[in-house]
Every structure is written in structure tokens, then in C-alpha cells.
Design goal:
Largest sheet: 10 strands, antiparallel
Oligomer: single chain
Number of strands: 10
Strand content: 35-45%
Helix content: 25-40%
Number of helices: 5
Radius of gyration: 16 Å
Structural class: alpha+beta
Distance between the termini: 16 Å
Shape: globular
Mean pLDDT: 89
Number of domains: 1
């Protein structure tokens, strides 16, 4: 059953990316600051396992990533100027005020290297992640997955920092929850 689920989820992610270009994805969490918008959907461990099994990971290798609190994110620059963002500057803030950063794709890649994950699977992983650094021209958008470095109990907010010609800014997604199976 897992291979059929993998194919179905792979199709879902491809169609979701195409639908986003048309503005048709149903995002569970949305926020904006001026013309900059951020959206997120929690991803269950089963969704991430299926997605990456279809891309050459073993179930054992992908399990730590699947067990982390993970989301699919979309960010769009609806303004006229250029902006940039660094995933290392984003923070999840728990109800207890504890701040947790997002785990960068390069950190996961070190784990994949130690686990001897095939290079083709590692490339697929990199392509599916929310990129570590982005520059957005007017109208640009990106979509990708990311995980928290460590779990937070209960709900939390995510602060996504970005910079434009007027300085530093934030978009905050409130009342996020990690997905369970």
C-alpha cells in the first residue's frame, strides 16, 4: 500500500505546485505584511515518508525528517520592489515563549550523507525544501518544505523575517500546530 500512497502523494505535490501558480491551493495558515504573503500547511509524517520514498529514500533514512514538525510553505512578493529572506532568520515561538529555529536543508543533508542516502534522493530533497536564501522580484513566489529544529508543545507562532529597501520586516503565522498521523 505504501508505494501506491507514494505515487498518489507525489501527484498531489506536483498538482499542488501547479495549482499554486493559479492561486488555487487551500492553505490552512495565511498571513501578510503589506504585499508580502506567507502561507503554510502542516505535513504529516506519513505524507513526508511517502513523498521521499518515491524519491529514493529508505523509510529508515527519512524517518527523522518525517518525525520532525514539518510544513509546506509558500511566500510571495506581491509588491513592486525586491525583497530577500533567509530561513536562518525565521523562528517558531512556543506558548511558553521558547524560540526554535527552522532546521536548514544543509543540516539535513549532512545527516543524509552519514546515512549514505543516494545522491539522486538528496538532490530531490534539496529541490523540495524551502530554500535557505531567497531573493524575490516583484510577483515572485516560492513553495517548499521545512521543519522545526526541535518540537514545541501545543500551538506556536512562526515569525518569517525578510528585508526590502526600507529595512527589516516580519510576517507572522499564528496558532500553528504540527500535524499528527
Amino acid at each position: 500500500m505504501l508505494p501506491r500512497l507514494s505515487v498518489a502523494l507525489a501527484g498531489f505535490f506536483v498538482s499542488a505546485a501547479a495549482a499554486h501558480a493559479a492561486g488555487d491551493i487551500e492553505w490552512r495558515y495565511r498571513a501578510a505584511n503589506g504585499a508580502v504573503s506567507l502561507a503554510a500547511n502542516p505535513l504529516t509524517p506519513a505524507q513526508r515518508i511517502a513523498f521521499y520514498l518515491a524519491r529514493g529514500f529508505s523509510a529508515t533514512a527519512i524517518r527523522p525528517y518525517a518525525d520532525a514538525c514539518g510544513f509546506s510553505f509558500s511566500m510571495q512578493n506581491g509588491g513592486a520592489g525586491t525583497l530577500s529572506t533567509r530561513l536562518a532568520d525565521w523562528r517558531a515561538i512556543g506558548m511558553d515563549s521558547r524560540a526554535v529555529r527552522l532546521r536548514l536543508p544543509a543540516e539535513w543533508d549532512l545527516q543524509w550523507d552519514k546515512a549514505q542516502v543516494p545522491e539522486a534522493a538528496r538532490i530531490a530533497f534539496r529541490w523540495a525544501q524551502f530554500q535557505t536564501e531567497n531573493t524575490f522580484e516583484a510577483g515572485d513566489w516560492i513553495m517548499g518544505m521545512a521543519t522545526l529544529e526541535s518540537p514545541l508543545q501545543g500551538g506556536f507562532r512562526l515569525i518569517a523575517r525578510y528585508q526590502d529597501d526600507k529595512g527589516q520586516h516580519e510576517v507572522t503565522l499564528n496558532q500553528l500546530f504540527c500535524a499528527g498521523d
